[in-house]
Write a structure and sequence with these properties.
This is Multiple sugar transport system substrate-binding protein. The protein is an alpha/beta fold. 37% of the residues lie in helices and 12% in strands. The protein has helices at residues 63-74, 91-102, 120-125, 142-146, 178-185, 198-208, 221-235, 246-254, 266-273, 303-313, 316-326, 357-371, 382-397, 404-423; strands at residues 50-54, 82-86, 112-116, 149-150, 153-154, 157-163, 165-169, 190-191, 212-213, 216-217, 260-263, 278-282, 289-296. The protein has a 5-stranded mixed sheet with strand order 2-1-3-13-6. Strands 8-11-7-12 form a 4-stranded mixed sheet.
């Protein structure tokens, strides 16, 4: 039997990204280090404006940027305006840039960082984030709020939550299991994010149902069944080969080459804009929790002013507009009580067709339902865990297997030898895959 990896068209292929202009070059960014013991940290001067670091705006028509601008034009005279810096669109590179900007003995380059939710534990454990007190917990979606906690304390507030959803051609059946999905997809009929980056990790976590309980690796029957079905779908070419990231997988679906698409909520608005009729539902077995958190840098000279900005972004009216205009899933419960059509205007001309109230309500319902079972490992060494997981699966795929069950058993053995070291942050964890 030919090697599985030989037919995957680059599944989980390695990519190297170089940043040359206006970016921070980071060759390696280990867990951030605290100031040396016995050496008092410097007193950071108060800036004239709040400095905010974030990733690229993936919302439809850049409406998240418009919300930042709205703060500057409508805030009170006692509030500070913000300068927003967009870092690399590549998640792993963005993380390294944020670490480099906050760590060390000097003052942080930014007052507020908009972190991928999976990184919050790492940044909090390194002492880079200011604890958030007086949080009105009943305002927030519990799963989203939990992503900002570390060791029982809140270090960030959610800004936009995310959960994997299944988009399907109008009339295609809604599958109950992964095997049902692959059977309904047909040849090359299911497309997901399968490149060697964080999106590939998320896809693997969804197939296995999460595989983590706290910091403990659990490969139960559900995880192995998911892996076996995934292997068989690859063998029978039910999954589009790729490699795909968010943009490429969405294009594959828009152009009609796939019947099913795994993507984030914002994809629905892009499908509406492209005139594609699609249904949306939770993924079989539940999705992986994603999203971004708002964190204030420790030693920021504008901590109180930054908190006012953070609270503004999480207001229910702003959350509703981020959802209906940009496709960001709300983080506050009040935003799920009703749907407000998009009211923001584009700066560069007429807005393209937007989702109707009925379409938005359908998407919002799917998101809220999916959030009920969504989860994501909360690990200090999440980045190492993520890369080791992909490395182990890639190594197992290089071997021949007689069945999906044989493949799942091999993955279980590889992960048992490597993931505990990765979770603990021990170097060379990926060597345990073989």
């Amino acid at each position: 039997m030919a090697s599985v990896a030989g037919r995957l068209g680059g599944m989980l292929r390695r990519h190297r990204t170089a940043l040359c202009v206006g970016a921070i070059l980071v060759l390696a960014a280990p867990l951030a280090t605290l100031p040396q013991q016995g050496k008092a940290p410097p007193e950071c001067r108060r800036r004239d404006r709040i400095q905010v670091a974030t990733g690229s705006d993936v919302s439809v028509n850049g409406y998240r940027r418009r919300l930042f601008t709205s703060w500057n034009t409508t805030n009170a005279p006692t509030d500070e305006d913000v300068d927003v810096v967009e870092l690399s669109p590549v998640a792993d590179v963005k993380r390294n840039e944020m670490l480099a900007a906050l760590q060390g003995d000097g003052c942080p380059r930014y007052d507020v960082v908009i972190l991928d939710s999976a990184w919050t534990a790492e940044f909090a454990a390194a002492g880079l984030l200011e604890p958030v007190d007086d949080v009105p917990r009943d305002r927030f979606v519990p799963a989203a709020l939990a992503t900002g906690q570390w060791r029982g304390r809140q270090y960030a507030l959610p800004f936009a939550t995310d959960v994997g959803l299944l988009f399907r051609r109008e009339g295609a059946p809604a599958p109950l299991t992964w095997r049902d999905l692959y059977d309904s997809a047909g040849l090359q009929g299911f497309v997901t994010q399968n490149d060697d980056y964080e999106g590939g990790t998320v896809s693997l976590l969804e197939v296995t149902g999460g595989m983590m309980e706290g910091e403990r690796v659990v490969m139960g029957a559900r995880a192995k069944e998911g892996l076996a079905a995934w292997w068989h779908a690859r063998e029978t070419q039910k999954i589009a080969e790729g490699p795909f990231r968010e943009r490429e997988s969405l294009t594959e679906f828009v152009t009609g080459r796939a019947r099913y698409l795994r993507h984030w909520p914002y994809a629905y608005l892009r499908l509406v804009e492209a005139g594609v009729k699609a249904e949306v539902s939770p993924l079989p077995g539940g999705g992986v929790l994603g999203g971004s958190n708002l964190a204030i840098a420790s030693r920021s000279g504008l901590a109180a002013e930054s908190r006012a900005f953070v609270d503004y972004l999480t207001r229910a009216d702003n959350q509703r507009q981020l959802f209906s205009c940009g496709g960001y899933a709300p983080v506050v419960e009040a935003a799920y009580e009703r749907v407000d059509p998009c009211q923001m205007q584009r700066e560069d001309g007429p807005a393209p067709p937007s989702a109707t109230r009925t379409q938005l309500a359908r998407l919002l319902g799917a998101v809220h339902l999916a959030l009920g079972s969504a989860k994501r490992p909360s690990l200090v060494h999440y980045a190492q865990f993520s890369e080791t997981l992909r490395e182990c699966v890639r190594a197992v795929m290089d071997d021949d297997h007689t069945s999906g069950a044989d493949f799942a058993d091999a993955v279980e053995r590889a992960l048992a030898g490597a993931l505990p070291d990765a979770v603990g942050g021990r170097p060379g964890a990926e060597d345990g895959c073989r």
